[in-house]
Amino acid sequence: MNDLAPQPREASTGGVLVRPPGPDDAARVARLLTLRGTAVEESLEQARRMISSLPVLLLALLPAAEAAGGEGPAGGGRAADLDDDLLAPVALSGAFPLPRRLRASLPEPGDGVEAWMVSGLVIDPVARRGGVGRVLLTAVADAVQALRPAADLYSVVNATNHASIGLHLVVGFEKVAQLRAFGTVTFEGGRGVLLRRAG
Length: 199
Prior knowledge:
Blueprint (H helix, E strand, L loop, with lengths): L8 E2 L6 E3 L6 H9 L5 H14 L2 E8 H4 L19 E11 L2 H4 L11 E9 L8 H16 L4 E7 L3 H9 L3 E6 L1 E2 L2 E2 L5 E6 L2
Parallel strand pairs: 5-6
Antiparallel strand pairs: 1-2, 2-3, 3-4, 4-5, 6-10, 7-10, 8-9
């Protein structure tokens, strides 16, 4: 399990519960990974690997009724107050230290400054535009800052994904460069954006 991640906490926006996933959450993480078009079995294996190896991995949960597009739990309960079985996974993100070989490909590799990379951001379409992404990406950035206060946090996004770029900018990232590829990530249309949140 990603022991370095922050302890479970409820984020204030919309009653979203953001916490590190445990081994029992592999199916929840896999469900979100299938939204990227990955096969179920492959997603389940990838989920187990992510849970055990990523230093920061956070899962965003909402009451199941709210996640399904309903009004939320009876009596206006918050996600943190509900039994875990009544919560549905709606978003996933994490971060990891950027390997030295990839740090060298940054347009401005800083000497002595540790660099981390957002491992991706998956948001269930039913939870989009409700603040879940902002809450989760902020929690990931806060977790990295808690682990490594001076580390810069990078993220790569397809240049056509205006919503994701806007979300990053709201959370305190800045555009650093345009890229055709970064590591093994290639961008649709050959245009990606590298963003950075300074440590």
